[in-house]
TrEMBL record:
<dbReference type="InterPro" id="IPR005939">
    <property type="entry name" value="BLH_phosphatase-like"/>
</dbReference>
<dbReference type="GO" id="GO:0016787">
    <property type="term" value="F:hydrolase activity"/>
</dbReference>
<dbReference type="Pfam" id="PF04273">
    <property type="entry name" value="BLH_phosphatase"/>
</dbReference>
<feature type="domain" description="Beta-lactamase hydrolase-like protein phosphatase-like">
    <location>
        <begin position="1"/>
        <end position="105"/>
    </location>
</feature>
<protein>
    <submittedName>
        <fullName>TIGR01244 family phosphatase</fullName>
    </submittedName>
</protein>
<dbReference type="InterPro" id="IPR029021">
    <property type="entry name" value="Prot-tyrosine_phosphatase-like"/>
</dbReference>
Length: 135
């Protein structure tokens, strides 16, 4: 997991056991940024929603196609974060889309340089996306 803010971590695809562990750790909200059917054997958003809600957590589904993260999706991610009960974990296949969405959600509040620095500190290495933020 990567820590992007005091209340937000990102992750790769979560298993049922990992979701249960997150609930036990006090995570209140999960955001899925992975479209259904992206990879064989991937749990469906509906099955994850059912599990998450059965554990008393909040669920948001904002599917984003890998490599096609749009500014508007970043805005939608920011809207979810603004109302989500913390702590929050967002996940996709590798966690990269979640990092992109987080940065895009803050693009009007922070400079591209500050966002790139924060992503790098969290362990992200996305040179093309970094150029987009700084461009």
């Amino acid at each position: 997991m990567r820590q992007l803010s005091e209340h937000l971590r990102t992750a790769a695809q979560l298993s049922s056991d990992e979701v249960k562990a997150l609930a036990a750790q006090g995570v209140k909200t999960l955001i899925c940024n992975r479209p259904d059917g992206e990879e064989e054997g991937q749990p469906s958003a509906e099955s994850m929603r059912t599990l998450v809600e059965s554990l008393g957590m909040n669920w948001y589904f904002l599917p984003v196609v890998s490599g096609q993260v749009m500014d508007e999706q970043g805005d939608a991610f920011g809207e979810i974060l603004a109302k989500a009960e913390a702590p929050v974990v967002a996940y996709c296949r590798t966690g990269a889309r979640c990092g992109c969405l987080w940065a895009l959600s803050l693009r009007h509040e922070r400079s591209g340089e500050r966002l790139v620095e924060a992503l790098k500190l969290a362990g992200y290495d996305m040179p093309d996306f970094f150029k987009r933020l700084q461009g």
